[in-house]
Amino acid sequence: MNREDHVAKERDTPYRSLTTHYYILVAVVVFIIGGYLLYLGGEETRFWRSHEGWRTLMEQLGGLLIVTSGISILWELVGKRAFAREVLESTRTAAELESAGIKRITNQFYDEAMWKDCFKGVEKLDIFVAYGGTWRRTYLSQLQALARKPKGRIRVYLADPDDVSTVTTLANRFGATPEKLKERIWETKEEFEALRQEAGASVEVFFWAGDRVFTFYRFDNRAVVALYQHSEGRSAVLPTIICENGGSLFQFIYDELRSIRSTSRPATPAVGAPATVTQIRRG
Fold first, then answer.
1. Do 45 and 85 sit in the same domain of this protein?
2. Residues whose CB falls within 8 Å of the CB of residue 209, separated by 6 or more in sequence, listed in order
3. The domain containing residue 139 runs over which residues?
4. To which H or E segment does residue 139 belong?
5. How do 153-159 and 124-128 pair as beta strands?
6. CA of 209: how far to CAs of 7, 129, 163, 170, 273, in Å?
7. Tens digits of per-residue pLDDT, 112-165?
8. 203 and 87 housed in the same domain
9. Do both 83 and 110 map to the same domain?
């Protein structure tokens, strides 16, 4: 604990302690009054025998004060503070999610509605995957529609099939042989390049050497991030996060994209010199 935190704690503690002692004192007084009323109502005197209604009221009022004082103490010492912590945690969580720009977290990576919503109106799409065969085939029609847009752009960053370390690492993770993984990567490259159309979108495919701890798709000012699993086999249940421009997570993805782009090589060198990452418009 640093000096500032220690000073703040010392400054807040007396007020909290004073408030607690005040409530306890009031509750004790109320408890004593309630006990006294119960005592008076329980006395067998001529006055109470002739005023049974008042006697009953006195006993009930005394019991009510005793119960109320007990509940008040429990609420002050336990309930209210637990409730305050819960509200504080909820508020802090909401603020952190807003700061990160996170709009949704799901474990259903292949949620069709989610992906179709991401494709709506998109013009620039960046894809960072090992090869992404299932996803590519599932949303081929949306990719073809984007490829027909004159102002569209598709950039795909695949695992480098000529880098031995990359292929070996990913092949072990995906439970495939290096030869089979290379085949899938080249197949993905060819299928994306086949999307090119005259007067259509720009379609570029790059190879990036290195391991992948997550995959992401950037749709204009929205990004979808999915984590890779480390266990053997494939699963449709993958943690998936959707974030938007303006948050720290989207900025992280954008910075990653710039770094990846600078160390990638064109899958088809004859196409031309490497392009630069287009500046993302804020807002």
1. yes
2. 159, 160, 163, 165, 166, 263
3. 104-271
4. none
5. parallel
6. 51, 12, 6, 11, 18
7. 899 999 999 999 999 999 998 889 999 999 999 999 999 999 999 999 999 999
8. no
9. no
Asked whether residue 277 is assigned to any structural domain, the reply reads no
CA distance 181 to 132: 11
pTM value surpassing 0.90: no
Residues 176-194: tens digit of each pLDDT: 899 999 999 999 999 999 9
Written as six digits, the tokens of 17 are: 């302690």
Which residue reads 């090869």 in tokens?
131
Give the number of other CB atoms < 10 A from CB of residue 235.
9
Residue with tokens 């474990």: 107
Report the distance separating Cα 231 and Cα 214, nearest Å.
14
Helix pair angle (248-262, 80-100), 10° resolution: 30
Which tokens hold the place of 226? 């999915």
Tokens coding 75: 């609420």
